[in-house]
Amino acid sequence: MDKKIKRTASQKYLKKLTIAVLTLSVAAAAYGFSQSADQGRSQNIALTSLTISTVKQGAFKDALSLRGQVVPKTSIYLDTIAGGQVEERLVEQGEYVEKGQPLVRLNNTNLQLDVMSREAQVTEQLNFLRNTQMTMETSRLNLRRDLLEIDLQITHLARRLKQTKPLVEKGVLAQERLSELKEDLAYYKARKELTLERQKQESAIREVQVAQLADSATMLEKNLQFARRNLDNLLIKAPVTGYLSELDVEIGASKMSGARLGQIDIPNEYKLVVRLDEFYLNQVQRDMTVLIEFESGMVNAKVSKIDSRVQQSQFQIEVDLPTGTQGVKRGQSIDVELMLGDNKSEALLLNRGAFFTNTGGNWVYVLEQGNNKAVRRDIRLGKKNQDYFQVLAGLSAGDRVITSNYSNFDKAQQLYID
């Protein structure tokens, strides 16, 4: 006969505990599933953490209010050519200097010795050239003297031959004497032809050599002048008239060849350097109008240069100030307005806000009736100025838009506002 097995109290408690745990797990999973599914659709948010702006109709000023820094339009840098040790500082930074005015004196012993050595070499070469020219001239004069002596011998022999011929015919002189005179005359005539040919060849060679020697002499003179100019370069002079805005020299300091000593700014010629957000890189063009605010009033200028290199999310433009503009100094900051386009008298305007960083201006949260709910809506924005975005589509005047940062809820389709 079978025996009935009875469960103990601990076994009954363990069974109930297991059932409870399984029930809680299923409920938690279901709750987590519903929460994950609903997370992308709705989210609760506190009203105090939001910035709400109203879309309005108004005039859109297509301009940017910016700050520009005054810098010299033209700066001339002072660099050393030969290098050396600073021996004397003749002016101070910030002074007005005239063209050719001495600024700094350097000392370079090695350069001085090198120039002296070059001068000795050049002098030696020039002396050699002069000696060569003298030798060539002496050879030319000797050749002319030989021709004169040959002509003289030919003249004497011709006269003696003329005098001797009748005497030989009368038998007073021997025929042998007449033959000797004829042979001597033929010799000197042949010698004259040879000397003339030699003179012609030497004359052609002399012309080439003289031209080469003249070129060599000119080159050596230039080398000597260049060596002397290196010494003159030890005295740094102002290349232009202007303000010595920088001068980085101290007595006794050594400066390498090509080292930067300072710079001179041309007076009364300035430009503004303005930095803009990279958002405007495609909108800014050369010759755009810039309104510059001075104490005396507004001045119109033009964008003269665009540096499209983006650094720290900004790029740089330059604006030339009118020549002779008064009341500006290097380093001064001035308020300007960059006119990006024509102003529009009627446009939909939305306040600028941090939402643009999250959405790129493609969508926003718009409040429905009341302040309890906001829904996601696709929009299209146009240009922006210092205060507003221009709304092209998706919003109407009177719509209330959340313009604060969306980073905490940008996945939700709708927001419930507490």
Report what the structure shows.
The radius of gyration is 51 Å and the shape is rod-shaped. 37% of the residues lie in helices and 33% in strands. The strands form five sheets. A six-stranded mixed beta sheet has the order 1-24-20-19-23-2, with no helix packed on it. Strands 4-13-16-15-14-17 form a six-stranded antiparallel β-barrel. By secondary structure, the protein is an alpha+beta fold.
Please summarize what this structure is.
This protein has four domains: 43-60 and 345-417, Beta Barrel (conserved putative lor/sdh protein from methanococcus maripaludis s2 fold), CATH 2.40.420; 64-73 and 267-339, Efflux pump adaptor protein, beta barrel domain (Elongation Factor Tu (Ef-tu), domain 3); 75-108 and 234-264, Beta Barrel (OB fold (Dihydrolipoamide Acetyltransferase, E2P)), CATH 2.40.50.100; 110-232.
User: What share of the residues does DSSP label as strand, in percent?
Assistant: 25-35%
Q: Identify low-pLDDT runs.
A: 26-39
Our measurement of the CA-to-CA distance between the termini, rounded to an integer number of angstroms, reads: 72 Å
Overall pLDDT: 82
Total of helices: 4
Q: Pairing-aware structural class of the strands and helices?
A: alpha+beta
Total strand segments: 24
If you compute it from the alpha carbons, what radius of gyration comes out, rounded to the nearest whole angstrom? Answer: 51 Å
Strand order in space, largest sheet:
1-24-20-19-23-2
Order of helices and strands: HEEEEEEEEHHEEEEEEEEEEHEEEEEE
Rough outline: rod-shaped
What's the number of domains?
A: 4
Main beta sheet strand tally, sense and closure: 6 strands, mixed
Estimate percent helicity.
Answer: 25-40%
